Amino acid sequence: MTLDAPEGFSLAHLSARLNGYVVAPAELQRLHTIYYDSADLRLVRWGASLRYRHPGGWTLKLPDEHQFPGGPAVVPPEALELATGFLRGATVAPVAELRTLRVSRRIRTENGDDLAEIIEDDVRVIAGNDVVQRFRQLEVAPAPSAAPTILEALSRVLRDEGAEPSNPEKAGAALGPRTAEPPLAVPAIADDAQAGDVFRVAFAAAVERLIRSDATLRRHGDDPEPVHQARVAVRRLRSHLRAFAAILDRGWADDLSERLRWWGDALAAARDADVLAAHLSRDAASLPAGDRPQLDALLAAFRARRDDAYFRVATDLRDPRYVPLLDAIVEAAERPAFTTRAFAPATDVIPELLAASWRRLRKAVRRRSRPPADAELHRIRIRAKRVRYVAEAVVPVAGRAALRFAGCVEALQGILGDQHDAVLAYQRLREHAATDGIAFGAGELAALALTAADRGRHGWRSAWRAARRRRFWR
Question: CA 138 to CA 6: how far, in whole Å?
Fold first, then answer.
């Protein structure tokens, strides 16, 4: 927790006993810090920062910290790569120089156990040889073994002394109001919002989700969560371009959607392989222990396919198409190619867009076979997903009714998603039906997949009826 230090406060004068805690003698340190950023402050506006500090070296905050070796002459390329999503190829240069006198005191129990450290920074912002700004901050850093309540207890003591909540990032305090500008310049939704405003807000939310996933994809290449977040973001972006087509320039929207398809395909392959491997591992755990050797050999093949898909994602992060694609979606969020229909009141246009998505879903349901084929159920799932994304996008103007409707459609999508996963698992397992040594295990898992698929074939209709009852836009 970071606080602004009140006038006259000094850790050096803090009592040796503080609310029953023992306060260690003060320790002093002088720091020289240079912050780097693009000309338009992309890092700090996204809540990140890149600095060189003496002593200490290079640190990139995302907001978790990453340390890099090297001197002040060259920005570490590894740091720039990790910040690719925020910088998108922009050149970085010094934007703020700080000289800091740091006073710290450790807080301990009567037995000498560390509880926390209170740090006071007296910061001077330098321009050439002149001090152009000065501020003081306090930070409370709890010890790893300290109780969760110690942070609030010590912060309360400091607030009683006059300290107030502060911007935790010194670059933000030094650079002033420009750092408060949002990373994506999109309008707020007001009562008189235009249809284009609704698109921009929904599209920007998906853009932010995709850009924030970049660093986690690069740091944790085998973690399924960032892949999932990035895939959902691309799906929403393409869905918004399709659902809001009536207010968008068609050529512009189609071109951007096609560019997104490349990245979405890589993420989909990785996500599908991950879901399939997890699904089969879960089913395998329910089978007899004596079958484990066969099952383990079979699962190894699916994990290898997953690893290949994840390797493609890591490779495509460095593809020449990737950074220009991020730039294009940021540009699209801030300056979309609208038709004149985009400037009509949202309350006039949005119900039509949602009704159009609903009609496509209803048509897919009505035209299904009896009983429906798996491909037809998959088509219904895709239509349901698109309706859900539109309903969620219009919540700022349609309110809780849209949110409740989206929840019902999400339930339908979830049932059909599980059914599709089971069908896909069965199809992949058939490929191993004649493989010596694992055929029996493949058959066992295929039987479980067939059961799950059949459950979805019969279970989706109740969710469909619930979604149909929730229609609200009339």
Answer: 9
How confident is the model over 339-368, as pLDDT tens digits?
A: 999 999 998 898 888 888 999 999 999 999
C-alpha distances (whole Å) from 288 to each of 129, 156, 280, 284, 433 are 75, 57, 14, 8, 19
Q: Right CATH number for 2-180 from 2.40.320, 2.50.20, 3.30.920, 3.40.50?
A: 2.40.320
CATH architecture of 195-469: Alpha solenoid (1.40)
Nearest partner of 139 among 162, 122, 107, 117, judged by Cα: 117
Report the alpha-carbon distance of residue 447 to residue 450 in Å, rounded. 5
Would the CATH topology of 2-180 be identical to that of 195-469?
A: no
**Domain ranges, ordered by start, for the chain:** 2-180, 195-469
- Residue 447, CB half-sphere, CA atoms under 13 Å: how many? 8
Read off the pLDDT of residues 108-163 as tens digits, 9 standing for 90 and up: 888 888 888 989 888 999 988 888 888 888 888 888 877 777 777 777 777 777 77
